[in-house]
Amino acid sequence: MMLFLAVVVIASGSDIAADISHGASALHLFQEAIVLLIALIFLCWLIIDSVLKRAQIRRLNSELEQVKTMPMPDSETVLAARHQLRQAITEQFDTWQLTNSEKDVGQMLLKGYSLKEVAALRGTAEKTIRQQASSIYHKAGLPGRHAFSAWFIEDLL
């Protein structure tokens, strides 16, 4: 899309320059200038959006790496409980017959990532993650994200 808009900007600019040298009417030049301006605005918007999304992905990956390098608790009880919870989640995901992608999304949702963050980390569209999350809730027979998370921790508290 950016390439297409860049071509439109370049072509429009060249056409306006040629029209000026051929003495085109002011109305025609104005119309072409509007097309150029709109294409330029959209191109700038796409570039800025792309830069912001890349920065967000870098930030999320950095946060994920920080979490991975956090010191594990020393308590054997806490370590055992974490292992058992991880195992219970894996078994329940298998019982619900989640796909591998749904399992990955489900784990990230349980860790507290937003749909937008999950999409950025997985390099997929947010709409895809939203559909996978809906599929998870449907297969689990749960109404939504809060019930999904509560299903695993309700009895622990």
Automatic annotation (TrEMBL):
It comes from the Bacteria. Residues 95-152 form the HTH luxR-type domain. The keyword Membrane applies. One of its GO terms (biological process) is regulation of DNA-templated transcription. One of its GO terms (molecular function) is DNA binding. Keywords: Membrane, Transmembrane, Transmembrane helix. The chain crosses the membrane at residues 33-52. The keyword Membrane applies. SUPFAM superfamilies: C-terminal effector domain of the bipartite response regulators. This is LuxR family transcriptional regulator. It comes from Amphritea japonica ATCC BAA-1530. The lineage of its organism: Bacteria, Pseudomonadati, Pseudomonadota, Gammaproteobacteria, Oceanospirillales.
